[in-house]
Amino acid sequence: MTLDDLGGRVALVTGGSRGLGLNHARRLAEAGARVVVTDLTLESGMDSVPGVRAVPMDIRDTAAVRDLIADIVAHEGGLDIVVNNAGGASGYVDPGQDPVVAFRAVVELNVVATYAVCLAAAPVLPDGGRLILTSSSSAFRHTFDVPASYVAAKLGVVGLTRALARDLGEAGIAVNAVAPGFTPHEEMRKRIPERVESMTSAAVRDQRLKRPGTPDDISSAVLFLAGPGAGFMTGQVLLVDGGWTFV
Ligand SMILES: NC(=O)c1ccc[n+]([C@@H]2O[C@H](COP(=O)([O-])OP(=O)(O)OC[C@H]3O[C@@H](n4cnc5c(N)ncnc54)[C@H](O)[C@@H]3O)[C@@H](O)[C@H]2O)c1
């Protein structure tokens, strides 16, 4: 057995049809897990990724979240791992928008909806189950031009990780988070091509490790937290940022 052998496990990845979430889903499936991904809209061809079933859903819809968890248990026979990846601020903060409304929307997605997914999943997770949340290096060091709502929300994810680890420990459920540094990926290059290059150089300049982060760097941490190697870790946040935060 390797540290990230996930044979026989069932995993849910939110926001898993593109970006980092898609990479997590692929890597979990390669490690032997059966994977359900959910997203607002699904990239065509998602269902053809081996070991992955794709279901459209908005994680802010609490009733739909509960239905999806029940559907996974019915169709896959259980649920062992939840990777709460859906998040961010893009699409939730528009220029000219009331800043308080935008702030609420970002906290609603990253913290409240993530909490709702964890709350719905916890009762069906077995002893040994895993909840993995997604924070950000921006929660710890605020230099990129990210909105205050994102910083507050991703630090909120750290608090939520610790609180859930406390609440669910007796059930044998480990709760940890990854905090990626700036990690360019294909979807980002499509969405904001002009910014990706300058943000990558700015990140690499300040990192101790002088190369851009990759989706695989973040997925490797997710796989570790999902796998047998992390069975005695809970309430922790793994910063995967090439040393950007502690310059
Ligand atoms: N890429 C980075 O540099 C970076 C750095 C730090 C943290 N993160 C965090 O990692 C996660 C993934 O980042 P990414 O760069 O792949 O982001 P992304 O925006 O490319 O992908 C996020 C995915 O979540 C989905 N999503 C958004 N709102 C949703 C909702 N209400 N319901 C269901 N799905 C929803 C989107 O459709 C998208 O597919 C996010 O939580 C992000 O904040 C990313």
UniProtKB/TrEMBL annotation:
Pfam families: adh_short_C2. One of its GO terms (molecular function) is oxidoreductase activity, acting on the CH-OH group of donors, NAD or NADP as acceptor. Keywords: Oxidoreductase. One of its GO terms (biological process) is fatty acid elongation. InterPro entries: NAD(P)-bd_dom_sf, SDR_fam. It comes from the Bacteria. Belongs to the short-chain dehydrogenases/reductases (SDR) family. This is Oxidoreductase. It comes from Amycolatopsis bartoniae.
